[in-house]
Amino acid sequence: MTDQSTAAPIRVRIAPSPTGDPHVGTAYIGLLNLIYARQRQGQFILRIEDTDRTRFVATSEQEIFDSLHWLGLKWDEGPDVGGPFGPYRQSERTAIYREHIEILLANGTAYRSFETAEELEAMRKSQLAAKLPPRYNGAHRELSQAQIDAYIAEGRPFVVRLKVPAEGETSFRDELRGEIKFSHNNVDDQVLMKSDGFPTYHLANVVDDHLMRITDVIRAEEWISSTPKHVLLYKAFGWDLPRFWHMPLLRNLDKSKISKRKNPVSLIYYRQAGFLPGSMLNFLGLMGGGMPAGGKVNEEKNSQVEIFDLPKMIEQFDFAKISLGGPVFDLVKLKWLNGEYLRALTPKAFFDQLRNNLFSDDYLRAIAPLVQTRIETLSQFGDLADFFFRDDVTPPQDQFLPKKRTLEETLAFTAELLTVLETSDWTTEALDTTLRAAGAAKEWSVKENFMLLRAILTGRTTSPPLLESLVVFGKSRSLDRVRRFLDTQKKQRKP
RNA sequence: GGCGUUAUGGUGUAACAGGUUAACACGUCGCCCUCUCAAGGCGAAGAGUCCGGGUUCGAGCCCCGGUAACGCUACCA
Q1: Model confidence at A91: pLDDT above 70
Q2: Are A295 and A308 in contact (CB under 8 A)?
């Protein structure tokens, strides 16, 4: 029952959410999906999962497109290129989800649940306090039609939940690991449709994958525990299951799931910091095995360098050879690989890279007005604007530490700044508001506040205007600089 | 806590369907080249394959039992 007709054309997809910077993990899973599709003359689809209105970021979708294109990952169907199974943006498919939720409500595999978010939160807390696994208590599983009608007439908001069978288990086949079983005791009655009428991931994902004729779901390992819910949904609709492939999770150096706190994860960062798309793709392809002999080309002398481009990966990548331990995303090795790519460039191509990226007209045009009034000879440009072109800066303590502050409170305040900056819009106006508010909240003067950030960003106490500099330097790289600063300070204090 | 997944040097990976001193790359260290730094060349250290049992003439590969790490445990994906 797991296999779709073998004659059906292979169709795979990635389904990123536009909730922030395009993630390196999206590129990783995207690459794997693309390789899988190309190896089998299949189709690769991009679907935007924008059902979470609270985390939605307007610019994010375009950034996902741009970053993926930068890497050379091309999709056959998607919101921007269209296709026969659209729309490819979930926010444009709400009518479809409503229709489908009606089917489940009608055949008794889902039910309305009228508790408020606060009630649920309270329930969760008390369960946790009692050391019980936090799960929905099923209070509204068997509401009578009369009660339901009454609640609805009252105008009480509700969510729709999956009615997981009380007994038994659900098992499915993971193509890389074999059979995986979950007892229904451990599968919660997942919310399928939120009270705002938007579907959750679980519903939208299953419905779309079926409607878009997806044959193989290739996604990250973190989804394994919710797969039984998805399987139950396919069954509830009476649909065939796709194949499931759960890929190992990219990790930080400490083996935890890769995160911006410990590692740059934004593709925008990597692009702006001057990594070449080819080396990034090559590196990603090496993560988790799959390539012959772990990336060793052959026994010939001098040809052991792990150089793979997309066509080569499509030719040689073997999904059966994927190793399941979570690979550490090792920035040191990525840099080495990128260096290899840089050195392999012709002098002309290398010059073009510099000219089109680090020293692009756009970048220089944005920086120029910030320094024009501050220099007397053109060569002083370098003295003042060097931080725009550097990988990192390290301000000495006497530069960043305000006179009246201890190192302790300064670092705490910096961490505070980091959190508010992460969610701030990246315009001078927004940054001004954000920073002033954060400073006021902790009783840091604007001067102390701005000076601190200036030192972190530029490595000195004299610089072009802070806000404008932040904007020009970009959000990803600016935040990375703050994180690295914090990290360096932490490491210096510990040992 | 519950459930699930995983486990080869510091890191990424190899090791045919169990068969010699566990291989390659990054990193580290040393030497050579050299005005410096890289790059490049040469070399070294570093794992006995998470631990404990078992099967076998023989186990990193098979079986059993532990442990640890990670993931999930939301009206987020």
Answers
A1: yes
A2: yes
Q: What is the pTM of this model?
A: 0.93
Q: What angle do CA A58, A63, A65 make, to 5 degrees?
A: 115
A115 touches strand B (CB under 7 A): yes
Instruction: Tell me the backbone φ, ψ of residue A210, rounded to 5 degrees.
Output: -70, -50
Task: Say how far A180 CA is from B6 C1', in Å.
Answer: 14
Phi, psi of A175 (to 5 degrees): -60, -20
Residue A151 structure tokens = 């609640």
Task: Report the C-alpha gap between A180 and A185 in whole angstroms.
Answer: 15
ipTM for the assembly? 0.94
Q: Amino acid identity, residue A444?
A: W
In which band, very low, low, confident or very high, does the pLDDT at A6 lie, cut at 50, 70 and 90? low
Residue A4 pLDDT > 50: no
How far from A310 is each of A32, A40, A64, A320, CA to CA, in Å?
Answer: 11, 15, 19, 18
State whether the beta carbon of A89 lies below 7 angstroms from any atom of strand B.
Answer: no
Q: What is the DSSP letter of A24?
A: H
Averaged pLDDT of chain A: 91
